[in-house]
Amino acid sequence: MSDGDNTNLYNRLERRGYTGKKLQDNVQCEIFQTIYEEAMEAYKEEIVHQLPSNTPEDMESNLEQIVHWIEQWMKDNN
């Protein structure tokens, strides 16, 4: 998503009455979705993951998963 796309999205959401945090959250969500889609196109599907970060427990679980992936990669590549 280019800066122009971000500006268009921002303006469209503003016209819908989105303001403040709600506006910011929606723009951020759109950006992350675009990044995910681009990663799916650029890399093997099995190495692209979306990790929910809705709660502190999600974030703790994500951290544990990422550490596990790093440790496994180090075992496999050293």
Brief overview, please?
The protein is mainly alpha-helical and 78 residues long. The chain has helices at 3-15, 20-42, 56-77.
Question: Which structural traits does this protein have?
Answer:
78 residues; 3 helices; mainly alpha; 0% strand; single chain
Task: Summarize the structure in words.
- There is one protein chain.
- The protein has 78 residues and is an all-alpha fold.
- The protein is built from 3 helices and no strands.
- Helix 1 runs antiparallel to helix 2.
- The mean pLDDT is 90.
Write the layout of secondary structure elements.
Layout (H helix, E strand, L loop, with lengths): L2 H13 L4 H23 L13 H22 L1
What is the molecular shape?
Answer: elongated
User: Regions with pLDDT < 50 over 5+ consecutive residues?
Assistant: none
Main β-sheet description: none
What is the typical, i.e. mean, pLDDT?
A: 90
Number of helices: 3
Per DSSP, what share of the residues sits in E-state strands of 2 or more residues? under 5%
Keywords: ATP-binding, Kinase, Nucleotide-binding, Ribosome biogenesis, rRNA processing, Transferase
GO molecular function: AMP kinase activity; ATP binding; ATP hydrolysis activity
Organism: Carassius auratus
InterPro entries: Adenyl_kinase_AK6, P-loop_NTPase
